Amino acid sequence: MSQVPQHKVIFDTDPGVDDAMALYFALAHPAIELVGITTTFGNVTVEQAASNALYLTAITEREIPVTLGVAAPRHMPPHAPPDFIHGGDGLGNLASRVPTSKQLDPRSSAQFIVDMARAQPGEITLVAVGPLGNLALALELEPRLPQLLREVIVMGGTITEPGNVSPVAEANIWNEPHAADQVFTAGWKLTMVGLDVTHQVRVTLSMVARIAQHHQHAATDALLHAVEFYARFYTGLYAHIAQEPGCFAHDVLAFIYLVQPELFVLESGVMRVATDGLAVGQTMLNRRDFIAYPQAGWGQGQAVTQVCMQVDAAKSVQLFNDTLLSDWLAA
Ligand code: BDR
Ligand code: CA
To answer: Cys bridge to 282: 24, 33, 177, 274, which one at CB 3.0-4.6 A?
Structure first.
């Protein structure tokens, strides 16, 4: 797969097992150049997320700046990190870590996003797979950010698929719903890759085991350990996953959309997020824009989000597998 990178990407993330899967897909895919990793709280504390991002990149011997981002939502108390899903360390409780000396970039995640976007206007894509506080803060630091970034892809939310933290809410959006509403109404080229598609795509444990067996490398060993832990959660919850242990491909699907958007069916419309009450974190897509709703918040001329509603699951899984089996760790 020799290809010149076509996508310069800042990866905004809370690693997190599926975040680690996504990170390694991005490092392995020849069309993607990761220019920075901005971390946030979510699956773990922000300090742990940053430490995991540093570790996951250091063991692949890649020099990519990593920044520390927001530590909590600004408008509500934080939810406890889901250690029963990702492990207390976010990577399935790794028994040990190879020593590394990689240091954080001193800037905040929001400042890093702004600096990079100003330095390379129109060139950078932001792929966000955690709560959206860093993006909201970056928008406040630089209101021209929607014009400076090439596009934004968010893993989060759901339209018709039931939620994973309430009947209507997905975890990333629920963790920081005010920030998510700011992001969905900001006016950039924005695509949402939510549970409507991520729940259609499963990565099996045996696939990740074959990838680790193939590479015999600390990076893919760590990934396999993490996915084993993560798969226990999904296997215990969903009968169809129990038949062949594995997990949903949440965060990696944002990168699969980036490199092969033709695998997805999209719908677009104005998106808002419920910021309190029983439906907090719900992503609401206006699918009837010909109705002049009397309720405030749904006026004409608002920013539109593209939403992934269907995906070619078999081709997505094949792409994940082929990309991770390539010689990306040998480079
Ligand atoms: C999302 O929530 C997190 O737990 C995962 O890393 C993913 O980003 C799925 O709802
Ligand atoms: Ca995540």
So the answer is: 274
Contact 258, 9 (CB under 8 A): yes
Our measurement of the distance from residue 229's CA atom to the centroid of its chain's CA atoms, rounded to an integer in Å, reads: 19
| Tens digit of each residue's pLDDT (9 = 90 or more) over 253-263 | 999 999 999 99
**Of the ligands numbered here, which is closest to the C-alpha atom of 83?**
1
How many angstroms separate the CA atoms of 124 and 268, rounded?
Answer: 22
> Could you tell me if the CB of 16 is within 6 A of ligand 1?
yes
Q: In what order do the strands lie in the sheet containing 32-39?
A: 66-67, 32-39, 7-13, 124-128, 151-155, 190-193, 305-311, 264-269
Query: Percent of the chain having pLDDT more than 70?
Result: 99
pLDDT at 331: 55
For residue 49, report the distance from its CA to the centre of ligand 1, in Å.
Answer: 13
214 is an active site residue = no
Closest CA to 165 of 42, 28, 329: 42
Instruction: For residue range 181-207, list pLDDT tens digits in order.
Output: 999 999 999 999 999 999 999 999 999
Q: Is the pLDDT of residue 2 over 70?
A: no
Q: How remote is the CA of residue 251 from the centroid of ligand 1, in Å?
A: 7
CA dist 183 and 3 (Å) reads: 32
